[in-house]
Design brief:
The chain has about 280 residues and is of the alpha/beta class. It is built from ten helices and seven strands. It has two domains: about 190 residues, P-loop containing nucleotide triphosphate hydrolases (Rossmann fold), CATH 3.40.50.300; about 55 residues. Helix 6 packs antiparallel against helix 7.
């Protein structure tokens, strides 16, 4: 009997020691703390964002079709109706990320409880844990993965399939994924062609990776803007922030600015306006 009691005590002490070593389960995040969050790992947590850096939806010029399509899709989702995951792809600096953030603000302005959660590409392997957290929350979430792309030896794309396909549980009903990329198929064309030429079964290798973009229900393309659209963006910013410049002067300075950059895009238009506003003593918040 004494030996049995000793063994029982030992097992109890071992169990207690293991309980002390095991980390306590992380508390569920307070999703009422903010309208947007950034997902971090080590430890896993949703970090509230006090102020989202974005522009108004009406200031996004030259992307009318993409704007209207994404807004409708997001409104459907926020209202509990069927909606598609969306891939915004195309030219650099043409407002892909800005559109996601602006649409989120526009939907919230209609009184709908929609949260934005940013997920970094390098944290994609943790997406299963993130989905478990969001599944248990009462709000609806746009999971936002910005500037998404994959190299030839990158296996993170397999984690992304868990969001798009959902595995055996399915994607949580209260989560939708919006991703932006400069590449329609999320990987360089030369890499696709190289794998097609060197693989034992070329079609299967390419199909596995290219099919990832096919899992997005919405493809929204962004293309380089014309000079008129570029100038219209700047004029819109000037009107919104009350920067008064003679039209001829504004046009000449804006064209000179884009010539020195060797590019014309929404990002270049904003950078010019930032400089212009500073020279006129106007604060841009």
């Amino acid at each position: 009997m004494k030996t049995a009691m000793t063994e029982s005590d030992s097992l109890r002490r071992i169990a207690e020691a293991l309980e002390r070593l095991a980390p306590a389960p992380a508390p569920l995040p307070d999703v009422t703390a903010a309208e947007a969050f950034v997902w971090h790992t080590g430890p896993d947590r949703l970090e509230p964002v006090d102020r989202v850096a974005r522009v108004e939806l009406d200031l996004l010029v030259g992307v009318n079709r993409a704007r209207d399509t994404l807004l409708d899709n997001t409104l459907h989702f926020a209202q509990g109706l069927p909606a598609n995951n969306a891939l915004l792809w195309g030219a650099r600096g043409m407002g892909k990320s800005s559109l996601v953030k602006a649409v989120h603000a526009a939907v919230r302005a209609r009184g709908l409880d929609l949260k934005l959660v940013e997920l970094a590409r390098e944290d994609l392997p943790s997406v299963g844990r993130l989905l478990a957290v969001l599944r248990a929350a009462p709000s609806r979430f746009v999971l936002f993965c910005d500037d998404l792309s994959f190299s030839h030896d990158d296996q993170h794309y397999k984690s992304l399939k868990a969001v798009l396909d959902g595995g055996i549980e399915g994607r949580p009903d209260n989560v939708i994924l919006y991703a932006t990329s400069n590449r329609r198929h999320l990987m360089p064309r030369d890499m696709i062609e190289n794998e097609r030429s060197t693989a034992i079964n070329p079609s299967e290798v390419v199909e596995e990776k290219v099919s990832l973009s096919d899992r997005f229900g919405l493809w929204l393309g962004f293309h380089p803007c014309s000079q008129d659209e570029y100038l219209a963006m700047i004029e819109g910013y000037c009107a919104a922030w009350g920067v008064n410049v003679a039209p001829e002067t504004l046009r000449a300075e804006a064209i000179e600015w884009q010539a020195t950059r060797g590019a014309r895009s929404g990002r270049v238009a904003w950078q010019f306006f930032t400089d212009l506003a500073a020279r006129h003593g106007v604060r841009v918040s």
